[in-house]
Amino acid sequence: MSEDAAQDLEAQTSKSPENHKRKDYLHWDDYFMATSLLSAKRSKDPVTQVGACIVDSQNRIVAIGYNGFPRNCSDDVFPWSKAPKRSKKDDLLEDKKMYVVHAEANAILNTKGMSLSGTRLYTTLFPCNECAKLIIQVGISQVLYLSDKYAHKPKYLASKRMLDAVGVEYKRHIPLKKTITIDFEED
Ligand SMILES: [Zn+2]
Questions:
Q1: How many Cβ atoms sit within 10 Å of the Cβ of residue 125?
Q2: 36 C-alpha vs ligand 1 centroid, how far in Å?
Q3: What is the mean pLDDT of the chain?
Q4: Start and end of every CMP/dCMP-type deaminase domain (predicted)?
C-alpha cells in the first residue's frame, strides 16, 4: 500500500464513529436518577411513586428502593387511600401513611447495615423529615433530588432544618437528557 493510500485509510477510519468514544452516553448523575425513576415504577401507590438510589464514592450503586408497604404486608390488603383531614380513628387506620415505607428508607434498609458514610442518595422527591433523620444517622453526605414539590410543608421544612444543621448537602438534579427511552426490542 502506498503512503497516500495508507493515510487515506487512516483518515477514513478516524472519521468513523465506531472508532471513537460515544458522545451521547449517559452521565453518572442522569444514570443514577434514571435508576431512581425506574425503581419508582415498581411502586403500587396510585398517587405518589418515589424511587431512590444510594451510590458510593466509586459510583457504585449500593442499594435502591421505592415506596411500599413493609415486606409481607399485602399490597392487596393494606389501604392505598388517604384519610380525609380531621378523620376519626377508624378512618386514620385506613390511611396509607400509617403503613408505607418511603423509598429513601427502603433504600437505606436494603443495604442491610453496611456503612453508608460518604455516600450520595438520589431520590425523585425531596426527602421528608423522617427520611432525613435516617439519612443523617447512616452518614449519607449528599442528597440529589428531582422534585421538591412539597417544599412549603412543615415536614419538608423540618427536613431541611436538620440537613442544614449537620451539613448534609442537597441539590436539585437538572438532567442533561430530558428523556431516556428503554426499548426492550432494540437490538
Ligand atoms: Zn420520607
A1: 24
A2: 15
A3: 92
A4: 27-170
* Residue position matching grid coordinates 432544618: 161
Q: Is there a contact between 81 and 95 (Cβ–Cβ < 8 Å)?
A: yes
Give residue limits of the domains in the chain.
28-67+102-172, 72-101
Q: Does 104 participate in catalysis according to the annotation? A: yes
Of the candidate CATH numbers 3.40.140.10, 3.40.1190.20, 3.40.50.970, 2.60.60.30, the domain formed by 28-67+102-172 belongs to 3.40.140.10
pLDDT in tens, 131-147: 999 999 999 999 999 99
Cell numbers standing for residue 38: 425506574
Distance, CA 86 to ligand 1 centroid (Å)? 22
Binding residues for Zn(2+): 102, 128, 131
Sign of CA dihedral 65, 68, 70, 76: negative
For residue 169, report the phi and psi dihedrals to the nearest 5 degrees: -75, 145
Q: Do 68 and 80 form a contact (C-beta atoms < 8 A)? A: no
